[in-house]
Write a structure and sequence with these properties.
The structure is a single chain. The protein has about 500 residues and is mostly beta strands. The protein is about 5% helix and about 50% strand. The strands form ten sheets. Strands 9, 11, 12, 13 and 15 form a five-stranded antiparallel sheet that branches. Strand 35 (about 455-465) and strand 36 form a beta hairpin.
């Protein structure tokens, strides 16, 4: 082995520590079990969509990085308007120097303590965020918007997400009372080219306007779905496919009567899915599913309740035709108890994506939120912008019992961290009594760590009343991907460098 090979292996390990998405193997190591070192990621990025077009919208951003062993010291994190970075870069190219960058919306001071920032009005831009060093592992940013009146009024929340190349959004709509936008944010120096495909109850919708959409460097575009097709359908699935580059994507679903919220992307297509954290007082729950393959999917529908798995009467199964969007109205399926939906194949496993539309309240006081199918929390997951009142943490262990540790961080303006341990029985969902920081001032983050047992899925609900309207928003808790496995080399390679 020469120096070039040695340098390549060292570079690959370094890349893994930076990005969290590198693997290393060799023919000699095939079939041999190796212990992989878990290292904190050293750099990460997050994208936050433009929050609202309403002049009366009030938006807050909360950033949090859990304290991570072996993360070292130094580094920083910041959120900045995507267009500000674009302006600076374009001026730099034309005049040889860049203009002074705008002040970031927020800059965390230290891991373990939330940092907050806010904007108001309908012209708040999309944000591009980067975190390095000790601020990178598990970095989480929550965007929360309060809209007192108008279409989509209520509480809207979304976890700012990492850029990617493919997204699935079951549960969107082009119905007359819905105004749904797909927000595309490009963090890079070159343009991204994106295709948006829509699938309804009878298959793909005719739409040439969704092909080859260009998203400029360091910019964000909200695409109104009703401009891509003339068909008006209540339940649709959107597929965002990035031909070149990468983007962040999220759907803002606004209803004239039922409020609105953000719909995050479903987890990758899978034969079995979990949709956690249905509020116990939900008055209407709708399941929307889609299979992108060539085979139909038959799904067993179960509710993980506090006492175990139960089958909703009248909604025991869901048949999803290949390439077509299917839906099922489950009503008040939780019936006053915590619950999560568990989808499994009745026979042959066929990959599907799915999401829930959840409604709380009655009459004129109804509000909507969405729960996409999500990944398990894995080693650790974090959700920010919690308050002493109005926060509900829901955890489910669909297959085997599990133990988790929940830590409430210090408050953004004061307070000390506090932890509790919870045991979950197989097939159950619990709305756990999450800890609250001692002497809390401001908001805080909740970090859930997997201690033992089977996979655990989680979601957090924020609730607040705005002008008498009971607003709420739900965010799932997938693994924060703060650690990366870097395989050990087969032998000590240092001697070969001589």
């Amino acid at each position: 082995m020469n120096r070039t090979t040695v340098s390549l292996i060292a570079g690959t390990a370094a890349l893994a520590a930076v990005t969290g998405f590198a693997t290393l193997s060799s023919p000699e190591a095939a079939g041999t079990a190796r212990t992989a070192a878990e290292l904190p990621v050293e750099r990460t990025s997050l994208l936050c969509p433009s929050p609202s077009t309403s002049d009366i919208a009030e938006t807050s951003y909360t950033s949090f990085t859990p304290v991570t062993k072996d993360a070292g010291s130094g580094g920083k994190a910041e959120l900045q308007a995507a267009t500000e970075e674009s302006d600076g870069k374009s001026e730099s190219k034309s005049k040889g120097k860049g203009k002074k960058a705008a002040k970031p919306v927020l800059e965390p001071e230290q891991p373990g303590k939330p940092a907050t920032g806010d904007t108001s009005g309908g012209d708040a831009p999309a944000l591009v965020g980067t975190a390095e060093g000790q601020f990178a592992p598990g970095w989480t940013v929550q965007e929360t918007t309060e809209v007192a009146a108008g279409s989509g009024r209520g509480l809207q929340g979304v976890n700012c997400s990492a850029p990617d190349t493919e997204f699935w959004f079951p549960g969107v709509s082009t119905a007359a009372d819905r105004t749904d936008y797909v927000h595309l944010t490009n963090p890079d120096d070159s343009a991204a080219v994106v295709d948006i495909e829509l699938y309804g109850k009878d298959g793909a919708l005719d739409s040439t306007l969704g092909e080859g959409i260009t998203v400029g460097p360091h910019s964000s575009d909200p695409i109104l779905l009703s401009t891509l097709t003339e068909e008006k359908q209540e339940n649709l699935t959107v597929h965002v496919n990035v031909r070149s580059g990468r983007v962040g994507a999220a759907v803002q679903a606004l209803d004239d009567k039922l409020g609105g919220d953000w719909l995050a992307a479903s987890t990758d297509p899978s034969g079995s899915l979990v949709l956690p954290g249905i509020p116990k007082d939900a008055t209407a729950v709708r399941l929307v599913a889609f299979t992108p393959g060539d085979s139909d999917a038959d799904l067993k529908v179960q509710l993980a309740s506090p006492s175990g798995l139960i089958t909703p009467a009248g909604s025991e199964t869901l048949h999803v035709k290949a390439g077509m969007t299917a839906s099922a109205d489950l009503g008040d399926v939780t019936r006053g108890e915590a619950g999560s939906l568990v989808l499994t194949p009745t026979d042959t496993s066929v990959p599907v994506v799915a999401a829930l539309r959840v409604v709380r309240g009655k009459g004129d006081d109804q509000e909507t939120a969405f729960i996409p199918a999500t990944r398990p929390l894995g080693t650790r997951a974090t959700v920010a912008d919690n308050s002493a009142k109005g926060t509900t943490l829901s955890l489910t262990a669909p297959t085997r019992g599990a133990t988790v540790k929940v830590t409430a961080s210090a408050g953004s303006e004061g307070g000390e961290a506090l932890s509790k341990t919870f045991t979950l029985k197989a097939g159950t969902t619990q709305n756990v009594e999450a800890p609250v920081p001692t002497g809390l001032k401001g908001t805080y983050a909740l970090t859930v760590e997997h201690v033992s047992g089977g996979p655990v899925y989680g979601a957090r609900t924020l609730a607040a009343t705005e002008d008498g309207v009971p607003g709420f928003t739900i965010q799932t808790l997938p693994d924060d991907r703060g650690m990366v496995a870097v395989p050990e080399a087969d032998q000590d390679l240092s001697v070969l460098q001589k």
